[in-house]
Amino acid sequence: MEKEKVLNALKKLREISKKRSFDQSVDLIIVLRNINLKDPKMKINSPILLPHSSGKDKNVVVFSDSIKSDKFEVIDSKKIEEIGKDKKTAKKFAKSLDFSLSEPKLMTLVGRYLGRYLSPRGKMPQIITDMKSVEQRVEQLKKSVRIRIKDSPVIQCKIGKESMKDEEIAENALAVINFVIQHLPEGEANVKKVYLKFTMSDIVEVA
Questions:
Q1: The CATH number of the domain where 68 resides is what?
Q2: Residues 124, 70 within the same domain
Q3: Which end of the chain is flanked by fewer CB atoms within 10 Å, N or C?
Q4: How much is the pTM?
Q5: What is the DSSP string of the chain?
């Protein structure tokens, strides 16, 4: 998709949107067609690093008994059990979490105590394969958005804030659109419509 089309849609979106008392989020909506949602290959659930921050860092935690850090939250095995044993706490934790990483030896424990809360939301942790790059990976996830196709042929994610430059929003949108196209069986032919909207606005088609 051409960048100019996204920029034109953003211009129209700003023209039709009422000014709000807060900095609205910018949502990208991709409607798909001719895909088989029963095919496991179509169950896409992946973080995408955006070229520009979406305006709010994501909540990322690391499940580990060996990693110590004051730059990101680390949850050890004892804490995993504590969270998982309280249904209300576990639900709240799963809702607040955006992404997580886990050292391999704790994956079974995470699955046992938190799997029922994280898995339905597509939030099970990614396995840490390189202990030296954990901090870098956390920083990348903080700047990422989750792309997920589950039970309906629609992808919706926040790609920025109203106060951002149109160029930055457009580049974030294209990063997501291009990723999705690359993972569809027929590429761009599987994309029916693409829309942009603010938190409290009507949608605008990216024509």
A1: 3.40.50.790
A2: yes
A3: C
A4: 0.88
A5: --HHHHHHHHHHHHHHSPP-SS--EEEEEEEE-S--TTSGGG--EEEEE-SS--SS---EEEE-SS---SSSEEE-HHHHHHHHH-HHHHHHHHHH--EEEE-GGGHHHHHHHHHHHHGGGT-PPEEPS-GGGHHHHHHHHHTEEEEE-SSSSEEEEEEEETTS-HHHHHHHHHHHHHHHHHTSTTGGGGEEEEEEEETTS--EE--
